[in-house]
Amino acid sequence: MSAATPARQLAERFGDPEAMRALYAPNVSWEISASLGMPLLEGIDAVAAFNDQVWTEHHRRDCSVTILDEAGDASLSAVRFVYRAWSLFAADWYENDYTLFVHAGSAGITRIYEAFDTSATIDFLAGRQPGAGWAAIGGEVGDRVGELGRH
Known about the structure:
Elements: H1 6-11, H2 17-21, E1 24-32, E2 41-42, H3 44-58, E3 64-72, E4 76-87, E5 92-105, E6 108-116, H4 118-125, H5 132-138
């Protein structure tokens, strides 16, 4: 892949809301994992305000992104990455896997679909080890994973 896709460009600008805004078309929309109960954000002002909130109220701006996978082209792209940032809520380092699917046109990015491991985020904010939430409803963390797919 010669040039960075719009999805990669966006992920690599996490922590810099002004640089993120520069990538957006006026009619951009951002949709996040439904389990968070967050509404669809529509329009550049709403999306930019959300980005600013994330990196002023939730996380410090000195975050990092490690790209794991990238696919697509200038009009439709996806990126999977590890996001690491200081959580202002938990006063600790937060790290989680994220995926962005991005649609773009001549005016910039028009649609963003964000997905991440919401269970890991909830465990982190609750001060639990990753997987502890699942363990509470069905056994030990990773219990019986080695048996999956076997008859």
